[in-house]
Every structure is written in structure tokens, then in C-alpha cells.
Amino acid sequence: MFIKLLLLIICSFLFACSRQKNTKQVLPIENQIQISESAININTASAAELEKLPRIGTKTAQAIVEHREKFGKFRKPEYLMLVEGISDKRFREVQSLIKVE
Known about the structure:
By secondary structure, this protein is mainly alpha-helical. Helix content is 46%, strand content 4%. The chain has one domain (2-99): DNA polymerase, domain 1 (Orthogonal Bundle).
């Protein structure tokens, strides 16, 4: 009985020691993307200004303005994906060209 208990303790100790900690650090998205000096503030831009962004047409630009008017200012650039027509792929294409203030 004592040997089984000792063996169980040793196995538990070895299992606990064998688990590796995940030391990989992931930087927040804000630190990974270089924002352009001439970035468009999506909280103040008109639909015409938003249309200057790649793959943002009249309909999508108007949807951004309407979303902002209905729900208030965007707190983070990522919240732009809440607007219908802004997919993850489209957001990544304009991410370095927009800002929120």
C-alpha cells in the first residue's frame, strides 16, 4: 500500500513538473499595426472621406456613418467590424489607414 502511495506521489510530481508554461507573449493588435500619419478618424469622417479608403464604397461609407450616429463613437478601430459590410478581411485592409479619437 505504501509503495502505491509513494508511486502516486512521484507520478503526480512528475506530471506537474512536465507541464510547460506558455511563455509566448502576444502583443495587442494596436502595437502590431503601424497607423498611417494621414489616418482617417472614423468618428469624425464624412461618408465622402470614408470612401477614400480601399474597398469602402458609397453604401459601406454611409453604413459606417449611420452606425456611428445610431450607437455613438467607435471606442476601438476593431469595432468597425460591427458595421454591416465590414468583414474581418476588409477591416485588415483598412486598419492602418483608420484611427479613433
